[in-house]
# Entry
Amino acid sequence: MENIGKKDWAISSSRIPFHSNGEEPEFVSHDKVAILNTNNQDAEIEIFVFYEDESPVSFKEIKVEPQRLKKIRFNDLIDPTAMKLERNYSCFIQSNINVVIQFSRLNTGIAENAEMSTMAFPVDT
Amino acid sequence: MENIGKKDWAISSSRIPFHSNGEEPEFVSHDKVAILNTNNQDAEIEIFVFYEDESPVSFKEIKVEPQRLKKIRFNDLIDPTAMKLERNYSCFIQSNINVVIQFSRLNTGIAENAEMSTMAFPVDT
Amino acid sequence: MENIGKKDWAISSSRIPFHSNGEEPEFVSHDKVAILNTNNQDAEIEIFVFYEDESPVSFKEIKVEPQRLKKIRFNDLIDPTAMKLERNYSCFIQSNINVVIQFSRLNTGIAENAEMSTMAFPVDT
Amino acid sequence: MENIGKKDWAISSSRIPFHSNGEEPEFVSHDKVAILNTNNQDAEIEIFVFYEDESPVSFKEIKVEPQRLKKIRFNDLIDPTAMKLERNYSCFIQSNINVVIQFSRLNTGIAENAEMSTMAFPVDT
# Structure
């Protein structure tokens, strides 16, 4: 059950909503990636964020423990710089070993608390 | 029309909601997988559930009859241990023959009864 | 721009909702497949529907004209037998030439008129 | 981090909703594609739109700058002809270099402001 997934994943359409209606922290609008590492060693992850009108930024030193799931909220990525709200972005996620990555959004700023989720695109390398 | 799909599938972002507003059992919040077996023999399925902070658990001896669809509600997986509510998990699903697996969620605990569905990731083996 | 897509596609998790709140026909709850044929000849389609507790049924003689999109509402499949409402089903869709297939659902029986869409699984053959 | 994605992508099930309830321009109903270009050169994009009952139309000379994301609203495609509202369409998107394409819809004409997003189908060429 080792080696499941791919090393490289991409999502082109993301946006952290600004408005939130719910309670902190569960119902605050957010974009998240869920990373599954089925291997017996840590997965070392780097997230590259691309914008419409600015150079890409890289967030490093993210680890997923062996045989664990890790959920990363884009709102929490603050080093070297915080993600801005209400701004379109794409991301390319690179791991040193195979993982499975899914992307989801909770938008609580509109009446229906829209929940959306899709598998990321598994890049062939 | 035999041999359609893959043996191994993965979903990284799952969570059984705690709150429900609807009638039992149709509108109780749930996560489900739908497994399609187009073959002329039983598909024998094992589901491995991964958590953020605990060792993975395996649910065995799940069968899908020949040329049938089977829907499995994660709320109903109780042996060797029940799935906990409001807890993030991933799953890796392994079949002895090719099947097609789709994942869906109904969240009736928020006003809009959000319904979400995505194909699982077909692992190449 | 010929030969785009795959011949065989599968969806495992479908269900035609019974309750509807909207006006006929646009807001009646339905499951649909959208088939894109970019080729210069007709695409001849056969849809196999699988159930949880009954033998599969095949719907034949569905054509998609050259360089056209065709949307098929499962509610409208009535020959050799009508699709039943509120019943889980999967489908396997086979074309004689490459096409692109996407699945979508509109559920108007619950307050939020949930709209869901996912690419079908492109079967390798 | 060059060369991520595919050159050719397809989406079969699209429709620009007519009714809108929100403020301009953020909450006007729309269909969008998000194109991520991780390369060090411009991506030159052509979008072919297919209909149910009319010949396909091609929208040319769309560029995505190096290492940038570009979101294209189908409502804004007006040359050689404007996209019509409330009409089903498919699209095939062709790039001269590898890109990652995701499709999303915001439908504000129904009570719940449904938000939907799915990766486009990566065509093997």
